[in-house]
Model the fold of this input.
Amino acid sequence: MNNENVFWNFAVNQSANISDIKCDIPELKGDNYKVWREKILLRLGWMDIDYAIRKDEPPGITETSTPDVADLYEKWERSNRLSVMFIKTNISASICSFIDQYEKVKDLLKAIDDHFITSDKGPLLAPL
Done:
């Protein structure tokens, strides 16, 4: 095997290993909020779709938008859409009912954060 093939095999195997990282995300039920949030944010970062959490929404695309502006918005929109879908699939049905209306990941996370009050004894469900 020549050096080029060795490098290629290493690069392919490294990519596969990163995607195989386990981070079991429990379904958010109320009593596990802190652990759930940490694991959700970690997984979104590993999947490289946390851009919309880290950055504010850029201006929308218009006829006068440059390709760079359009690319930035599309990157944010994809990150936002995938993050919202991923988060919603990791929440129990009893909690899902109050978050269905959120389409932006920052708003969704804020609503979930606001729904839970942390005390010295652990997360408690806040009144709706």
The chain is about 55% helix and 5% strand. Confidence is low (pLDDT under 50) at residues 6-19.
